[in-house]
Amino acid sequence: ETLEALSDLVRAGKVRYIGASSMYGWQFQKYLDLAEKHGFVRFISMQNHYNLVYREEEREMMPLCAAEGIGVIPWSPQARGFLAGNRHRQGGGDTSRAKTDEQAAGWYYDDSDFAVADRNVEIAKKLGVSPAQTALAWVLANPVVTAPIVGVSKLPQFDEALAALDIELSAEDRAALEEPYRPHRVLGHL
Q1: How far apart are the C-alpha atoms of 69 and 20, rounded to whole Å?
Q2: Is pLDDT of 25 > 90?
Q3: 3-class secondary structure for the chain?
């Protein structure tokens, strides 16, 4: 019913394309199969949870999207600000959001997450850019990623994110950023 309703909206010209967000790979494949079987409009994008401290999407969703030609538009590429290098192991951080963001504290405050964040700060210092920029540059370096969803609350954050487009991480930098990662439970699927 959902696919039929979405297809009707596209065919009526109310929407141009449809995309999906945050689900298991098997669920998304099921939608793709049903669309093909019944002649429904096909999803053209996946909006998924993906960043340096949450890479579980690399297991199934990213390869599925690559194989099916589906655009990947990750949300939270900077892990709700966790990768900006301003969070503290004992909780909170240097910004208003860091002090009040219970969601980030529940998702990203493991020791291995701080190891990734610390490595990100090291690489950013080496490159002379901000940790937020290296985190974003890392997401952009993934050939499956079409464009990340970047949340900003101030104009300088937008400029900083835009400048990340010009950062090219070397293979060594990417490997160094990825090395401390440890698998997580699935996050962000409602």
Answers
A1: 14
A2: yes
A3: CHHHHHHHHHHCCCCCCEEEECCCHHHHHHHHHHHHHHCCCCEEEEECECECCECHHHCCHHHHHHHHCCEECCECCCHHHHHHCCECCCCCECCHHHHHCHHHHHHHCCHHHHHHHHHHHHHHHHHCCCHHHHHHHHHHHCCCECCCECCCCCHHHHHHHHHHHHCCCCHHHHHHHHCCCCCCCCCCCC
**Residue extents of the structural domains in the chain:** 80-142+153-190
Q: Taking the model in full, what pTM does it have?
A: 0.89
Q: Give the phi and the psi of residue 69 in degrees, each rounded to 5.
A: 70, 35
Structure tokens at 45: 């994008």
Tell me the per-residue pLDDT of 106-145, one tens digit each, with 9 for 90 and over: 677 788 999 999 999 999 999 999 999 999 999 999 999 9
Segment 5-23 shows an average pLDDT of 96
